[in-house]
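Lab notebook, entry 472. We have the chain sequence and a SMILES string for NAI, and the next step in the workflow is to get a structural model of the bound complex before anyone spends time on docking refinements. Request logged below.

Task: model protein plus NAI, output structure tokens.
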Amino acid sequence: MSVIQCENASRQRTNVNDRVVKSVRMNMTEEMVERFVDAASRGDVAAVSSLISRCPSLLDRPGANGWNALMLAARNGHYTVTETLLSHGADRLVVNRSSQTAYDIAKFWGHTHIGNLLVGTDNQSQHILATTDPSQEIYFSAEPLDRLSERRSDATWQQDKQNQPDSVFLLFSELSPLVHSLEPSTGSGAQTSLSRFSSSLVKELLLKPGSVLVFLGVERRRPSSSPETSSEPPAWFAINSTEDPEVLLKLGGEKDLFWARRPNRDLLNFSQDEAGILAQARAVLAWHSRYAFCPTCGSSSRSEEAGYKRTCTNASCSSLQGVHNTSYPRVDPVVIMLVLHPDGEQCLLGRKKVFPTGMFSCLAGFIEPGESVESAVRREVEEESGVKVGSVRYVACQPWPVPSSLMIGCLAVALSTDIKVDENEIEEARWFPRQKVIDALFRGGSPVLLLSPQQTIAHQLVKHWIGCNSNL
Ligand SMILES: NC(=O)C1=CN([C@@H]2O[C@H](COP(=O)(O)OP(=O)(O)OC[C@H]3O[C@@H](n4cnc5c(N)ncnc54)[C@H](O)[C@@H]3O)[C@@H](O)[C@H]2O)C=CC1
Ligand SMILES: [Mg+2]
Ligand SMILES: [Mg+2]
Ligand SMILES: [Mg+2]
Ligand SMILES: [Zn+2]
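Result returned:
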């Protein structure tokens, strides 16, 4: 029943003209909303309950100052009223005129118990509202293996590990990992898992001239007092093979294995731990596949230090004198930034032509030589959108192994707001208000705004901004 219907039930017929009736109705509606938000603000549970049961549509209605009952209950620390409003289905994700949710308000005023209530127990809103440290959950950044870099040049130790029955080998063909599907019941949210092979299964493969082997590290064992943990934890390796991929599939015996070939999609379906291992393995193998020849003299190069160095085979090459970055795996730094409007309530998102319809993401670009992170943010934003940027703050980063970028995630504040896109790179850029972004994050997107998947740092930066307290 709407507020107006509620009032209709009690209103006596009158023969004043329509305009007057309408104005009286408006006043009565507003008055009822004000009574309701006032009751919530004072912590009057009885009045709140009675008004909702008479007029359920009052629930999320804002009063004249733009704050609804949930926000006022959160502001004044009224736990039972908050609980009552939530039990009737109050919307936790609407914002007031300063773009604050009830959660932002509770957090700002230090009502932690109300903040916890507003975050709730469902995973989605816990994720959305409670995240203030995005680095905790950045996909591709887990480090479940200890890289043991000091063991890379110890050939005896490396050979010994390659022969041990508990060592784990991952297989790649043209940089795609060999994987199998996971049952949804595993509960980790991952859909695929890296297929693990033992040393006996890959022994012959390692002798083939096209195989490249990289030592990834050893498992980090949890501290335990049990005597069997005194032996060294299992070592992990990655192999990129040039053998026929169909033949390699058979190495797994009866198991239903397949190659995860679409880098931007298939690589996003692993557990956090496996994604971390994959980011390391794929980026190092990608470097080997592109640096078969010495960048200094063009002679062939060979893999050394367990896959972490390539050395030129030409004894007179200058790359053999001193230390040269051409000999080591490369990482390309990229800035990725969520640019905030000077009003603090909108953010700048852009779309490339190749994005699916409705998808917008953070602007990004490679850092150039001699450039700081801050300068690269300012240059890329101005090049791509015409917007000038002032302060820049680092938030979190993400290794992106396609092929080997490091995405450096920042929040940046705009100094100007007119948009003029570089059409070679960006099809469109727009300012999106906080409420639209909250809807896209928590209500599954709309044809107007779809965000990139949650495994991307672009998504995490947007979520981080929403999770930050806005200025009260
Ligand atoms: N994880 C995430 O959330 C996101 C990741 N990205 C990644 O960030 C990277 C950079 O973003 P863009 O907007 O494309 O950069 P960008 O704005 O600098 O433009 C790309 C152009 O820069 C040039 N370039 C300069 N250095 C390069 C290098 N080391 N490698 C390749 N091209 C280089 C090329 O001409 C290329 O076409 C992309 O590879 C993309 O995969 C981009 C957006 C979101
Ligand atoms: Mg650019
Ligand atoms: Mg760009
Ligand atoms: Mg660029
Ligand atoms: Zn050389």
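Notes for the group: The first helix runs from residue 3 to 10. Worth checking against the assay data. Residues 217 and 451 are 35 Å apart (CA to CA).
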